[in-house]
Specification:
Order of helices and strands: EHHEEHEEEEHHHEEHEHHE
Number of strands: 11
CATH class: Alpha Beta
Shape: globular
Number of domains: 1
Strand order of the largest sheet: 3-2-1-4-7-6-8
Number of helices: 9
Distance between the termini: 37 Å
CATH superfamily: Spore Coat Polysaccharide Biosynthesis Protein SpsA, Chain A
Helix content: 25-40%
Structural class: alpha/beta
Low-confidence stretches: 240-252
CATH topology: Spore Coat Polysaccharide Biosynthesis Protein SpsA, Chain A
Strand content: 15-25%
Largest sheet: 7 strands, mixed
Length: 252
């Protein structure tokens, strides 16, 4: 069992069935698991490797979701594991082993990064979408940023508008803190779900080795993607080559 890494799953009561069905894709990492949910929509699953905690209010966007995320960061910081793999209920790494390149200490935060940095405007032009991989030092810096928000960014925790999103808050905090961020070399996301682009996503897993996936709403989709990835891994290149290709596969 990998005691040095904590797998975290952010979810809410409406995700309970999905979380239960997707659980093998988090359990297969052989790490302790922390399920974090809102206090008004908690998720409870009994398992010897799972801890369930709740804080904050349910919602998809708006200040209450940022405040909930900050509360969940603080709960996560209480755990002893050095490395953190933070998921939503629709994100997985298809393989039991997390990618070797995540051990690169020169990167502070890994994410499914959407877009590119603006040449002159900080914290503009990108979104950092789940899952996220970071260490406790990076998490402590994110928490400190959240506790001492610059005035021009106070809207993140005071304004319940549709433009306030957790993924944008990750990006803003990372950029303003000067964190060294990187998109997953073999990451992939679609909107609103993988199922909406299923044939293309299966092609990505089978032909280029995409495996750190955001947007899976059905476990059957994850199962098929895992089969596609195994086919790629069996007949294609080594992980060492994947590490150097810096793959970026994004579909808006």
């Amino acid at each position: 069992m990998n005691e040095d890494t904590l797998t975290v799953v952010h979810c809410y009561a409406g995700d309970q069935e999905r979380v239960e069905r997707m659980l093998p894709y988090w359990l297969h990492h052989e790490t302790p698991i922390l399920l974090l949910s809102p206090e008004d929509a908690p998720v409870e699953i009994k398992h010897e490797r799972i801890t369930c905690r709740s804080a904050g209010k349910a919602g998809w966007k708006g200040a209450r979701t940022i405040l909930r995320q900050i509360a969940h960061w603080k709960i996560t910081s209480e755990f002893p594991q050095t490395h953190l793999f933070l998921n939503d209920s629709d994100t997985v790494c298809l393989t039991p082993e997390l990618p070797n390149y995540l051990n690169d200490d020169s990167i502070d935060l890994w994410a499914n990064v959407i877009g590119t940095r603006h040449p002159t405007i900080p914290a503009y032009g990108m979104n950092f979408e789940p899952p996220y991989y970071l260490n406790q030092w990076t998490l402590a810096r994110l928490i400190d940023f959240a506790d001492h928000l610059p005035e021009e960014y106070r809207g993140y925790v005071t304004t319940d508008v549709e433009t306030v999103e957790i993924s944008a808050f990750y990006m803003t905090a990372s950029e303003l803190l000067g964190l060294r961020s990187q998109r997953f070399n073999d990451g992939f996301r679609t909107y609103p779900s993988i199922e909406d682009w299923a044939p293309w996503v299966y092609w990505e897993a089978q032909n280029v080795g995409a495996r750190v996936i955001h947007g899976i709403k059905q476990v059957e989709t994850a199962d098929r993607l895992a089969d596609c990835y195994r086919s790629w891994a069996r007949y294609s290149v080594s992980e060492e080559l994947v590490d150097t290709r810096k793959m970026t596969r994004v579909r808006e």
